[in-house]
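forwarding from the other thread:

> can someone predict this with zinc ion?

sure thing
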Amino acid sequence: MKLKKIVKELTAHRLIIVSLSLVLLLLVNILFTRTNKDTDKVAFIPEEKMETIEIVEIPFVSSIQDKISTVEAVLLPGSNLNDLLITQGLSRDQASSVVFEMSPYVDLRRMRAGEIFTLEFINDDFEKLSMNTSNNMIVEVFRDNSVENGYRAVEKERQLNSFVKHVSGTIEDSLYNSALDSGMSANILTELIHLLSFDVDFQRDIQQGDTFDVAFEEIYDNNGEKVEDGQILCARLMTDGREIEFYYYTDLEGKSDYFNIDGQTIRKTLLKTPINGAYITSGYGMRVSPITGYNKKHQGIDFGAPRGTPIYASGDGVIESAYYSRVYGNFIELRHVNGYRTLYAHMTNYARGMRKGIRVKQGQIIGYVGSTGMSTGPHLHYEISYWGTKVNPSTVKSPPGKSLKDKDLVLFENLKNSYIASFLEKI
Ligand SMILES: [Zn+2]
């Protein structure tokens, strides 16, 4: 009986042990399976795929349903950017964040009334503020949820486009009024007058009925607003039977200037020495013998040269005087543009056809060295005056005269012909 009981108990024990072992095996199996599965999973995802997941993460694409609106707000007197933003519906926090981000780029305290800000809203939520800081730069403050205060600023170049504008007209009263009437800006007109003034005397030459043609660039931003005037590309003025024209060209060295139809620079000044092979015998301001008649101050320069040596017009101009005087002998006075005059004295003879009112070109022979009038020997007495005041010819500034050559001349001709075809022949 006692043995039976032991066997029974043993059987029970074995049963328990077996069952416990089974449970244990099962648990281990489950655990192992799980662990294995997890490991498998981690090992299975390739790195590229994880990267893909990151990239796909938050691309902000405004859907078609998003309503984007732009507002241009003008800064009012006594107001500031913060007020302006709150008026436009930004919260106080948003406004102060935007101002904070903007401040390194713009001196907000010195901002003037009339300054324009462009605000962009997406579905009525503020998205972006932009402001032009100069003609070609813009500052933008835009939403960026990855930064602490939600906004970030960037300064960048504005997208600018250049357009060519062509203006032509007939002068009614003055070039100034006629040009402004025909749609030219004051800046372009000032530049035009400056460039024409190398050839045109605006006090005298311009007459009613003269015509002009000008092509120039205007620079616009992406919103179609004019940012600034660009370069004058070409111009033609018909006055007094003359055609004055010039073209803008950038040479192969990268230097830009205006050239006439022959490819010569239009920037002319007076010749300092209107005679070849001469030497200065008496300079400006020196005292000379009373016999010459200049007993106070010598108001010109004397060039010693043999009798008959040709004398050149030192600039384009019109003969104002050409007659014999007791002091100057046979002399010529030329009137140049914009207040300059030159005088050539003691000539033995005038060149053929020289008389009052005749127009001469720079370098043209106007007479020949002599010793007429109060003179002690053959020489040219040469004076320059500016609005009636004598100036020292040797101090008159003259930029190097420049003519286009070789490849530059070929390229210039091509450009000039295209300008003529595009603008100057479309009157
Ligand atoms: Zn002299």
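The domain at 279-395 is CATH 2.70.70.10 (Glucose Permease (Domain IIA)). thats all i got for now
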